[in-house]
Amino acid sequence: MKEFNRRDFIKSSSIMAGISLTGTASIPSVLSGVDDHIKIALIGCGGRGTGAVVNAFESGQRVKLVAMADAFQENIKTSYDNLLKKYGDKIDVPDSRKYVGFDAYKSAIQDADVVILTTPPGFRPLHFEEVVRQGKHAFLEKPVAVDIPGVRRVLEAAKVAKQKKLNVVVGLQRRFQNNYKEAVKRIHDGLIGNVVAGQVYWNSGGVWVRPREPQQTEMEYQMRNWYYFNWLCGDHIVEQHVHQLDVANWIKQKYPVSIQGTGSRAHRTGKEYGEIYDNFAIELTYDDGSVMYSQCRHFEGIHNRVDETFQATRGRAYISAGNQAILWDDKGNEIFRHNAKGDPNPYAQEHVELFDAIAKGEHRFQDIEFSAYSTLTGIIGRLACYTGKVINWDQALQSNIDLSPDVYAWTANPKVLPDENGFYPVAKPGIVTEPFI
């Protein structure tokens, strides 16, 4: 097997060989013709997708929703009806541009200038490739993949997107949040010295469960309960905790060389929780010897925590999604505290800046690369906990385990199936089996 390292990682995949680069030297114009609206397509019409469309509508630009796509017709109807109540003048989606099914994304992309990708993340590489092939700007919800071959596909597509000067923003909204931006800038400027350690947390009570219905095929059941299956979600260390892992990498301005950790199903053990763990604790080791400790869990009825702390040679820092940011020197004196008054909502701000760049014809955003590597950090963390081994970053890049189904169809089976009692196989550290790595 070919040996990969970080330098040649994004050269390793030939999956994007068919993407044309002809005629793409300039930023795609979206304001030509009679209608000067920026036309958007929504692919993945759940709550997050609907919210992203609202963010786009309120970006301050002339934006119009012209196409919607989803695997399920009722998702499109619910999203469309909810948006129509308040934003009817910004919506032009006749039934002919409401696309349903696994291939619906291809048609929706054709209709738009900007594409919002908010399906379960297992589809992100496939959909992003098509967005780039068709030469459209994009907003992608995080994470951008669920396995290492998927990360390679995204990075290959990102190279083409950069050549085509496509603006790409990913929903790691802390990058657009003022308290994070101000604290990280001061840390990078050396206010507290060199960061040597840190702790990042997403400990919460977990998410929804949707009961199995008698008429459902296995594919439909897993699609509707996508959070509990790795080919769709990547486990919550990837789907949710990617935010904190991205902050750790952002602070360090690099990626870990190895990851180790532990995890299990200690609380959410029923068959309705599919194959994923409910807790992870990992250590990210960087090439300068610094270590970031990461913790995420889905336990109900216990202390929750979503924030980050860092220790440096001349002080320490605390940052949280609740708009807090405090820096202290090595004697414990406070030397910076963020004033959150007037701060914009970061979920909205990422769209404000994206659509401003598009309206002005500027190529400003190429968020996909760091987003892919932070996604990869979560994936390697999952592998470390599932296997119970120390996973070297460069070694992990050799993985060719593709978690996606061989066929996307309602009658086809995903790769991981339940036993006769309805329980799905769960990774046991020390016992390495292919479906998990």
From TrEMBL:
Domain (Gfo/Idh/MocA-like oxidoreductase N-terminal): residue spans on this chain: 38-162
Source organism per UniProt: Sphingobacterium pedocola
Domain of life per record: Bacteria
PANTHER family hit by this protein: BCDNA.GH03377, OXIDOREDUCTASE FAMILY PROTEIN
Gene3D superfamilies given in the database record: Dihydrodipicolinate Reductase, domain 2, NAD(P)-binding Rossmann-like Domain
InterPro entries linked to this entry: Gfo/Idh/MocA-like_OxRdtase_N, Gfo/Idh/MocA_oxidrdct_glycsds, GFO_IDH_MocA-like_dom, NAD(P)-bd_dom_sf, TAT_signal
Name listed for the protein in its UniProt record: Dehydrogenase
Residue ranges annotated for the GFO/IDH/MocA-like oxidoreductase domain, each copy included: 180-297
